Amino acid sequence: MRKSSPQSAPKLQVAVLSLFPEMFPGPLAHSIAAKAASDNIWAIESINLRDFATDKHRTVDDTPFGGGPGMVIKADVIDAAIESLRARDEYKTAKVIYFTPRGRKFDQAIAKDLAGEQNLILLCGRYEGIDQRAIDKHQMVEISMGDFILSGGELPAMMVLDAVIRLLPGTVGDAQSVLEESFESGLLEAPHYTKPADWQGMAVPDVLLSGHHQKIADWRKQMAETATRERRPDLWQQYKTA
Fold it and tell me: Is residue 173 part of a domain?
């Protein structure tokens, strides 16, 4: 993907710190995100954490104090990587996002918040995690994708970026489609239908063929409320009390 230049800075510049930088941009090199990158709406660079190791073996981790399984990525390695970015004007005040099961659960509200940033540093952990002192020093924003465990932070980073990029002005051709997506109103989306109107004996609801915009809007809201109440009672409670 095209890197930014001083003459034409993207709306969002992202640096990813990872032990597997070759994983990026991954799926972000396709479809909507790729088009946005080619239009200089956003730009990404991936950086290998091993480049900041200080020994000939490029060691980035060590055993945890207090015992226990697994390895912990060293604070000095992470600090050196972040400080190398801080030395550049575009990352001097950038938020550092760290992906961890201990973090706040990612949602559309966080995506909107991050879409308002001009620069982001994404840290992808591995093994048992990273030294807490690096988190504390750099006041990292800790984000979780849910109550499950992945092998590292690379996939969460891609998911977060995809959610954020589509919110950047100019990414999605029809801005209204973004506003009508699930979670934007606090509800899941209503079901969608397209041609043919009758498929294998299953017909599109008559109201969608009526051309009556208010009735269609009312039907979609009713369907969205029903789906949210049945599938996501947690969201339904938030919606009712909002």
Answer: no
Q: Is residue 7 part of a domain?
A: no
Retrieve residue 161's tokens: 């970026």
Residue 160, in any domain of the structure:
yes
Whether 123 and 226 map to the same domain: the answer is: no
Cα separations in angstroms, 190 against 56, 187, 221, 224, 242: 57, 9, 7, 4, 20
Say if residue 140 is in the same domain as residue 59: yes
Write the CA distances from 215 to 89, 208, 218, integer angstroms. 52, 9, 5
Per residue in 153-198, pLDDT (tens digit) is 999 999 999 999 999 999 997 665 666 666 778 899 999 999 999 9
Residue 224: domain span: 181-241
Residue 187: CATH number of its domain: 1.10.1270.20
The whole-model pTM stands at: 0.87
Q: What is the CATH number of the domain that holds 54?
A: 3.40.1280.10
Which parts of the chain register pLDDT below 70? Answer: 1-7, 174-182
Q: Is 126 left (phi over 0), alpha (psi -120 to 50) or beta?
A: beta
- Which residue blocks in 60-153 are alpha helix, DSSP H? 75-86, 108-115, 132-137
Burial letters 123-140, b for 16+ CB under 10 A, else e: bbbbbebbbeebbeebeb
